[in-house]
Amino acid sequence: MGLGSVRIRVVTSRDEISGMGAEEKAVHLAFRPSDRDLFSLVKTCPGIELLQLPASSYEGLSKFIRMYLASSGIHLVKGDVSGHWHDLNNYFVIPAYVLEKINELKVQGRTDEEIIGEITHIRKISPDMILHLLHSSFLTSSPERPRMNKI
């Protein structure tokens, strides 16, 4: 059984949060969220597991919010969705071939740094996102471990 693609919901404004579906597991906030926006996101998407923020927003998060997200089971990742056009699609997709390549390199015994170097050469994905994928359930294809927004 092959690995599925990962879909990350791209949210460009706080007004979009209330209209999101509860099934969203991976979200990229393309705006600087307030604490209220983050609380609203967690309430609207109770199953969220991954939150990606641009570097400027990531660095500005308070220690309290970081602890709140961690205690809510949300993995916080710094990075962008390079090349994504929100006008065309609400999701940034990390294709299955990227996950398969990460898995292949992991099986070969490559270090995290080597894997990050090779994957960023193939596809523009943040190093933090690659590390998250490398150490998450995305690289297993067992049916009892659901993947985020599998295509």
From TrEMBL:
InterPro entries: DUF1699. This is Ribosomal protein S6. It comes from Methanosarcina spelaei. The lineage of its organism: Archaea, Methanobacteriati, Methanobacteriota, Stenosarchaea group, Methanomicrobia.
